[in-house]
Structures are given as C-alpha cells and as structure tokens.
Design brief:
It contains 18 helices and 10 strands.
C-alpha cells in the first residue's frame, strides 16, 4: 500500500507535527509569550518629542510602541477613522471571482474547489482585518486549517495585532513572532502576511497612519485649544470684591462662590483695588481660526487616505468635482484590490489546492475587484446573438464571470438546452436522387431532370419538390444561422411594412451571409418554377 503524505505547494512533505500545528492557534494573545491582550496607552500626553522617539525606535527595529500608538490614533482621530474605514469597506465589498489556470479539467476542478470554499464566508469575514495593512503598512492573519482528507482548506482567518510581531533588523522586511524565548520565524503555511504600502520603501513606514501621525497630534492640540477658547470666549468674568475687614476664611468663601458659578474665568480682589480688562483686537476673527485649522488638517488627511476631499466634504460644484474624485477613488480601489488578490492567491489559494490535490504546475487565481470588461448583461446578450453566428466562447470563462460552478451528477439543473429534434427523413427516390447532393451537383441534377421531363412528357416528381423545399431550408439555415429568431421577433413586433423595414435595418444583419442565402433561394425557386411550367405545358 502506497503511503499518502501531505505535500506543500513546493512538493515537500509536511511533517506530522506540522499537520497538528496547522489545526491549532499559535499566535494568539498570551501574557507569558510577550503578547499581552491589553497593552496600555501611549497617546495621552503625547508631544512632538515623544512621538519622534516612538517613530525612530520603530525604524531601528523596535516597533511595538508604534503599533500600539497607531491603533490609538485610529480610535482618537474621528475623521481619520472615518476615511480609513471607508477605504477599507470599499475593498472588502468588491466582487470575488476565481479563474482556473487553464481549461484543463483538473484546473477547472481546482477553481471550483476554491469557489466552494468562498461560499463558507471565511474569507469575506477576514478581508476587513487584512485591510488593516492600509493604515499600518502590513497586516497578519493566522490560518487555522480544516485538515479533513480530500478537502484541506482554511476554517478560520484570525487577525493578529501588529504589535505581536517585529520586523527583522537584518533586512527590515521579514516578520518575527514575539515569544517568551524572544523572536522566532513565522511557522510555514500558518500566516497570511498582507503588505499594503502607500509609498515605496519599508512596509513598516508605508502605512497611512505613519503619514498622518503628526497631523493627528497637531489636530489634537487644536481641538484642545479650541475647547478652551470656546469655554472662555463670550462668557462674563465673575469678579468678587472683599473689604479690608474680610478674613482669610471670608476670602476663601468668596473665591469658591465666583469659581463655582461656571467656567474658569473668575477672580477676587480687594474692594479698594481696580482691575482693567483689555480686549485683544480681532477677537471675533479668532472664532474661525481654530475651525479653519482643524478643517485644513482633516482635508489633508482625506487627501492622504482617499486621494481627495470631495468624497468627505460638500463644496461648490460638488457634483462635477465628486464625479472626478470618484474616478480617483476608483484608481485607489483597484490598487487595493490588486494587492489583496496577489496576497491571497500566493499565500492562501495555492496552499489549499496543493494540500488537497498535490503540487500543481499552476494554481487558480483569486481576483478581487469590479471587472473592467463589458457589463454582464451586455456580455450575455452578445453571446446569445453571436453564438448562433459561429462565435465560440470558453464555458469556464463564462461560468467564472458569472460566479457559477459547473453542475455535477445528482445536482438539480435549472435551464439548459432543449433536446434537439430528430431530423425528418427525406423522401427522394434512391434510384433517381444521389444520397448526398451538394449545391453545384444539385443544380446539374435538377437541370437534367427538367430536360428529361420536357422530352418524355412526365410531370415533376413530388419528391423533387420536397427535396427542393428541404434543401432551401438547409441552405437558409446555414447562411442565416443565428438570425432566424431575431428576424422572427421583428416580424412579430412590426405594425406595418415601414415599421418592419426600420426594425430590419436596426438589426444590422451581416449582408454577405444574408445575400448568399437569398441567391440560393432564388436559384432554387427559379428551377422549381421551370419544372412546374413544363409540367403544366405537358398536361395541356
């Protein structure tokens, strides 16, 4: 008995202990492994010096604090969370299709296997987490495999915090997993590492959060100053006065009175003293200063994440500008979808196919994104119209485009072609008519037949007329293949001859095929007419 062993996508045997590891979680939160489930906060009290130190440490191979801070920035900056969430959701809701490597039955079978797995929803529920790489430069998902023989596929895709990993100081790209023994290489076949840089360079420095970090900090300062200004501006000053006889306790009571009324703008002075309040010039313009500064920062963040501001802010001429901005968002959407497709095809689809069917020369391609081709309705109409004219289309391409799989034995079938009716046998006499009559030989045979009947006085045999009718139908079907139903539909809908003429012109039928059919029909009709005329003359 031949021992069957599980092979990876490179054809190498997978060790038994590795097979057990495929089913287990190995990178989850664990305080003893250096992956604490709660990692504290770094955003409160941040200042330019502290932020710069965190970024420099990340660049030097210690990125844990930066990853913690990056997650907090998304939580504490509402505008950034909104635009980043919009970009993530756009990529997550795009259509997913699977294309076989080629039309070989095995390749089609592999693609159907991947499509069947997609219907479980495992990938769909994990796409948003994979898109976390847009903000942080990379995202990691741990694969928990279902190792049922004959159908080895991911049962779960679990997002893991970027702070659970560290970038190798040797090349700046390889990821290590944090453990109690230090850093270790990622286990093979257990992780999907999606790198999603917004600029060229190290993935750690390519996330959008890195680009907006200082904007977030200055926006936080602006919002704090705006809150203080709003609280103080326009509120009356509470001024308490006390006399020379007031004791320290009296002063404390007076201070509590004026300070507890509302806000922080309060003071106490002796009654014999004077206090002058000098208003700053252009105080009214200061009302708009903080708002304009905060709006500028938000617009800049929108440009970083979405490529523009029309998708988040209403402006004059918004319809035209929004249409142009939607095209920019479409470019970003295709970019995000292309990166996701490449990651999942290389790190997930190829492995599940190799585990189940063994190493293959080529693997199915998982494609995320809106198709750039003609819309499906137009594709179906074109296939229906042109198929009858001889156009041949691969069945696998049509099924893949529609997101359908080929039915198997035992499936209930909807649709399909009706059974082809059996052709009626022709009636011609075998003594007179050759078994197969081509176009040129048919004309010569009919000419001889008419000549013989003109000399002998016999009528045109009935089987000749049947033969001519049958031949006319065959010739017309060959030349007009695919046009019959369309022409018939036009005849049914036409109200008069003028309407019929316009509808036929709109069909734009191929003139060459139509003219050929008409020539054949006219030639055959002419010969039948001659035979009928000779027969009538003989009877007279």
């Amino acid at each position: 008995m031949v021992e069957r062993r599980l092979l990876d996508q490179f054809g190498d045997p997978v060790a038994p202990e590795m097979i057990a590891q495929l089913r287990d979680e190995i990178a989850g939160p664990s305080a003893i492994q250096g992956r604490a489930p709660f990692e504290g906060h770094l955003a409160f009290g941040i200042n330019p010096e502290r932020l710069g130190a965190v970024l420099r440490a990340a660049d030097n191979g210690s990125s844990r604090e930066w990853m913690i801070l990056a997650e907090e920035i998304e939580e504490l900056y509402p505008h950034y969370a909104a635009v980043l969430g919009k970009r993530k959701r756009q990529a997550c809701q795009l259509p997913i299709t699977v294309e076989p490597d080629n039309d070989h039955p095995d390749c089609v079978k592999h693609a159907d296997f991947v499509r069947e797995w997609l219907r479980t929803g495992v990938l769909q529920s994990a796409l948003f987490d994979l898109c976390d790489g847009i903000g942080k430069g990379y995202s990691v998902a741990e694969i928990v495999w279902d190792t049922k023989p004959g159908a080895i596929r991911p049962a779960k895709l679990l997002w893991r915090r970027p702070s659970f990993f560290e970038t190798s100081y040797q090349d700046g790209e390889t990821l290590w997993l944090r453990t109690e023994q230090g850093f270790q290489d990622l286990a093979p076949h257990k992780f999907v590492v999606h790198r999603h840089p917004s600029k060229s360079g190290m993935a750690l420095r390519g996330g959008t959060t890195r680009l907006v970090a200082f904007l977030w900090m200055f926006a936080t300062y602006t919002q704090r100053d705006w809150a203080v200004f709003t609280q103080a501006y326009g509120l009356p000053l509470r001024l308490g006065k006390y006399g020379p006889e007031a004791s320290p306790d009296d002063k404390r009571v007076l201070w509590r009175a004026v300070s507890n009324i509302a806000g922080d703008v309060a003071a106490i002075i002796p009654r014999s003293m004077e206090m002058e309040f000098v208003n700053a010039p252009n105080t009214g313009a200061g009302v708009h200063l903080f708002k304009d500064r905060a709006d500028w920062m938000d617009r800049t963040v929108s440009k970083v994440v979405l490529g523009g501001t029309a998708g988040t802010d209403a402006i004059n001429g918004g319809h035209a500008v929004g249409k142009e901005h939607r095209e920019v968002e479409g470019d970003i959407e295709r970019f995000d979808a292309g990166l996701l497709s490449a990651t999942l095809t290389a790190q997930l689809v190829s492995q599940m196919v190799a585990f189940t069917f063994g190493p293959q020369p080529g693997y199915p391609k998982l494609l995320i994104g809106r198709p750039d081709e003609v819309p499906l309705a137009e594709v179906i109409t074109a296939i229906a119209d042109l198929g009858g004219l001889g156009l041949e289309v691969k069945e696998s391409e049509v099924l893949g485009r529609l997101g359908l799989s080929k039915p198997e034995a035992g499936d209930r079938i909807i649709g399909g072609r009706p059974p082809t009716p059996e052709p009626k046998p022709s009636i011609p006499s075998p003594a007179v008519v050759p078994p197969q009559i081509e176009t040129q030989t048919q004309r010569a045979w009919l000419a001889g037949l008419i000549s013989r009947h003109s000399q002998t006085g016999g009528g045109v045999p009935e089987h000749a007329v049947d033969l001519l009718s049958q031949r006319l139908a065959e010739d017309a079907a060959g030349a007009l293949s695919g046009m019959t139903e369309r022409v018939r539909a036009v005849f049914d809908k036409a109200t008069d001859l003028d309407d019929l003429k316009e509808r036929l012109s709109a069909l734009n039928l191929p003139r060459k095929a139509y003219g050929e059919a008409m020539q054949r029909a006219m030639a055959l009709a002419h010969l039948v007419g001659q035979a009928s005329l000779l027969d009538e003359l003989r009877r007279r």
